[in-house]
Amino acid sequence: MEKLITIYHGSEQIVKAPSFGKGRKHNDFGLGFYCTESEELAKEWAVSSLKDGFSNRYCLDTEHLNILNLNSPNYTILNWIAVLVEHRLFSIKTPAARRAKQYLIDHFGINVNAYDVIIGYRADDSYFDYAEAFLNNGITVEQLAMAMHLGKLGEQIVIKSQFAFSRLRYEGFDIAEKEKYYVLRKSRNDEANQLYLQMLEKESDDLFIQDIIRGGIGSDDPRIPGNLSE
């Protein structure tokens, strides 16, 4: 990663001074300031069907920051979902799903609060649904890994620590027009869901979460797919 990077925060508001410790604790990686290196994605994330949004632009000095990149070869798809299930509110439909959630946290979880910055997939509506299907034994781990590339829904960079916030400099904003970017956001999401349904039509003999639990499988098992960016 370059020392100085430009990142964008999509919002209904102009955010000149992001604040450490504020926000929703049930976001993907807990409390933090959620950004992306893609201005176009930030604009899609900023709009609703009813109003325009803003793409806030920042320079982040990454020197001396402790960065966790969940999309690097050092981690698997299950490290990402373990972090996700620990922070997001999932529909736990059965006792088996409850055990699955705890198994993922115990065997694949990472203390994200030990890092200044987190990089990983963004659990937009579609990605969250895929993760929930895996947790409830509906799709295999290989299908989950494939689903993470559907629709190219994006990678996020999350500012976690007070030190990382101090390395962030506001540089301005652009308006995200709902007429353009809501259509793009919906199209991207619809494409992901269509491809997901097509994927489900194909038979899979890979590992379901219950197979992983019964086999006591961990991150070093070669059958667990990596969690790599496009």
Defining traits:
230 residues, alpha+beta, four-stranded mixed beta sheet, 18% strand
Give structural notes.
With 230 residues, this protein is α+β, with helices and mostly antiparallel strands. The chain has 8 helices and 7 strands. The longest helix has 23 residues, at 178-200.
Structural class: alpha+beta
What spatial order of strands do you see in the largest sheet? Answer: 2-6-5-4
Please report the total strand number as a whole number: 7
What is the mean predicted local confidence, pLDDT? 90
**Secondary-structure element pattern, one letter each:** EEHEEHHEHHEHEHH
SSE topology:
Elements (H helix, E strand, L loop, with lengths): L3 E8 L21 E3 L3 H8 L6 E9 L5 E3 L7 H11 L7 H14 L8 E5 L3 H11 L5 H7 L7 E5 L2 H5 L1 E9 L1 H23 L8 H6 L16
Parallel strand pairs: 4-5
Antiparallel strand pairs: 1-3, 2-6, 3-7, 5-6
Structure summary:
The protein has 230 residues and is of the alpha+beta class.
